[in-house]
Structure formats: structure tokens, C-alpha cells
Specification:
By secondary structure, the protein is α/β, with parallel strands linked by helices. It has seven helices and 17 strands. The structure holds flavin-adenine dinucleotide and FE2/S2 (inorganic) cluster.
Length: 276
């Protein structure tokens, strides 16, 4: 069944917003879930985080990266399939003071969904969203500000909000003795590793999204394996959120780079055909 795209808009120079009709996914979505999109008949399956699920529709933030995302941005007004919700939702309960942090497209989508669920569960939720510059900050209507208790917008060059990456500001907060009971974060993998290194010293549980290449996204191919505490886990069914203090980061950072050459060829072909 085709799924109609009901809204598409630019978020910044690289990312765009898509809202699509997907009533069954919207009804069962829990924070931490993701979807798999098949954009055209026989197209590849691409996993996407969900920002919100309301009125039978889901909203996503998508980066224009390669063949499928560019094609979607330029040419499509429907998806062939929207499959999900996939993955394991987070354990939504009262933790106390919770930080939710993000610095990239998928992390920003999760930030909104996690803040909303954790606030509704009675937590004091502190959200950090980091963008490179003021020009790249998303429109206010999609930021996590209204769904948290304390909001920190940061830009790396200081042109809007607080100056620096959320890692710098969080480190200052922790050094000053501010109490944080748990941290959830998504976005750049190297920064999530750094976050885990930082919070380990303070003994703060830290749950992060480990984005790995997914093929079937249903636990059968093994493509998305992540090693956690020495055990093999599958990001598509056991994750995608895992304990940052237990992840084998060397392997997790290496795997997403495996198909860069093939991805380049697919994008060049798509550009030649005028679809990207
Ligand atoms: C759980 C999860 C949530 C995600 N959420 C988002 C999101 O909210 N917004 C967003 O823009 N992107 C998200 N991604 C990444 C997204 O799936 C890729 O950006 C997309 O597949 C790129 O496809 P492409 O053809 O445009 O680019 P390609 O040129 O095919 O790929 C560009 C890069 O995207 C990644 N990628 C490609 N194919 C896959 C795949 N099958 N599975 C996972 N990663 C892949 C690789 O790092 C690759 O180098 C998520 C990935 C996962 C695993
Ligand atoms: S994508 Fe195949 S096992 Fe996870």
C-alpha cells in the first residue's frame, strides 16, 4: 500500500522534514522505535528515526546524503512502504533528572520523541540540540523546546544560543556537580563514543543510538551487529539504543563505512538520470 507524503519542507541546507500517512505505525510507535522506508517499488530499505507520531501520520528528519534520500527529496510524493515500528523502545519510566542530547539529523528526531515520552513519565527533562551555525538551526516548530523542562540550543561557532558542542556544556554541568540521573543521546557516532567516555567517569547511565547499516531490519541478516559487553547484539531488534559504556566502539565506528564506494556509484548514476 502506498503512503502519501502530506508535508515536505527544508530544515536547513542538508536536512528536510517529511510527514507521511502511516496510521498503523503511528498508533503503535513508542520512543526509541524507528521505521524502514521503501521509497519506490523494488527500492532499497532505509531505516529512519521518528520525530513524532500523531493523527495517523509520522514525521521524520532526513539528510540528503545519497541516491535514496536525494530521490525522495527531489521527486517523490509517496512511499511504496513504511514498515514498523521497528526496534526496541526505551524503558520509559521515572528516572529523575534526564538529559536528552543530539547533534545530527537522526538524533534531533529522536530528541523530540524521547523528551516528550520522558516528560510525560514525570521526569525533569533537559534537552540539548547542537547545530554547526545559526543558519543550520532547524525551524523553531520542530525543535524539542516545547516538550522538555530545560532547553539548551547550542551552535559550534556560537552564532546562536550557547557556544560549543553539547559535550562541552554537559562537561561543565557535570564538573559543577549538577545531578543527572540518566542520559539518552543520538547523532554523530564518534561524539556518542566521547559522551560515553565522559559519563563513565561520573557513573551516569548513558543510552545512545548506534546507527549501523541495516539490510532486512528484522534480525535475519546480521548486517547491523553491534558488540555490547562482549556479546553480539543486532541494532534492528535489540537496539538501536545501547549502553554507551559497554559498546565495542572500534567495530561500531568501522562498520557504517563498508559500502562508501558502492554508495558513490549509485548516487552518480541517479544524478545522471536526473532523479537525484
Ligand atoms: C536506526 C536508524 C535510524 C536512522 N535515522 C535516520 C534519520 O532520522 N535521518 C536520516 O537522515 N538518516 C537516518 N538513518 C540513516 C539512513 O538510513 C541513511 O542515511 C540512508 O539509508 C541513506 O541512504 P541514501 O541512499 O540516501 O545514501 P547512501 O549513499 O546509500 O548512504 C549514505 C550513508 O548512509 C548510511 N546508510 C546507507 N544505507 C543504510 C542502511 N540501509 N541502513 C543504515 N544506514 C545506511 C551509511 O552510513 C552510508 O554511508 C538512520 C539509520 C538507522 C540505522
Ligand atoms: S539489519 Fe539484518 S539483522 Fe539487523
Amino acid at each position: 500500500m502506498a503512503h502519501k507524503i502530506t508535508r515536505k519542507m527544508d530544515l536547513n541546507s542538508e536536512d528536510f522534514y517529511v510527514e507521511v500517512e502511516a496510521p498503523l505505525v503511528a498508533e503503535r510507535f513508542r520512543a526509541g522505535n524507528f521505521v524502514v522506508l521503501i521509497t519506490v517499488p523494488h527500492g532499497e530499505r532505509i531505516p529512519m528515526s521518528i520525530m513524532k507520531a500523531e493523527d495517523g501520520k509520522i514525521s521524520m528528519f532526513i539528510k540528503k546524503l545519497g541516491k535514496t534520500s536525494w530521490e525522495l527529496y527531489k521527486s517523490l510524493d509517496q512511499f511504496e512502504h513504511v514498515i514498523g515500528p521497528m526496534g526496541k523502545p526505551i524503558d520509559v519510566k521515572k528516572y529523575g533528572r534526564v538529559v536528552v542530547a543530539s547533534d545530527l539529523v537522526c538524533g534531533h528526531a529522536e530528541n523530540y520523541a524521547l523528551c516528550k515520552a520522558l516528560k510525560e513519565a514525570g521526569n525533569y527533562v533537559i534537552s540539548f540540540q547542537t547545530f554547526p551555525t545559526a543558519e543550520e538551526v532547524y525551524p523553531e516548530e520542530v525543535l524539542a523546546r516545547p516538550v522538555c523542562d530545560e532547553y539548551h540550543l547550542t551552535t559550534e561557532d556560537g552564532s546562536k544560543g550557547e557556544e560549543g558542542h553539547y559535550l562541552d556544556i554537559l562537561e561543565e554541568m557535570l564538573e559543577s556537580g549538577e545531578k543527572i540521573d540518566i542520559i539518552f543521546a543520538g547523532g554523530s557516532l564518534p561524539n556518542l563514543k566521547e559522551l560515553g567516555d565522559l559519563t563513565k567517569d561520573y557513573n551516569i547511565p548513558t543510552i545512545v543510538t548506534v546507527r549501523q547499516i541495516m539490510v532486512d531490519a528484522s534480525g535475519m541478516c546480521g548486517a547491523c551487529r553491534v558488540f555490547v559487553d562482549g556479546e553480539m547484539q543486532l541494532a534492528c531488534i535489540d537496539g538501536p539504543m545501547f549502553d554507551a559504556h559497554k559498546i565495542d566502539w572500534d567495530a561500531a565506528l568501522r562498520r557504517p563505512m563498508m559500502y562508501v564506494e558502492q554508495e558513490k556509484i549509485a548516487y552518480e548514476r541517479c544524478k545522471k538520470l536526473g532523479r537525484c
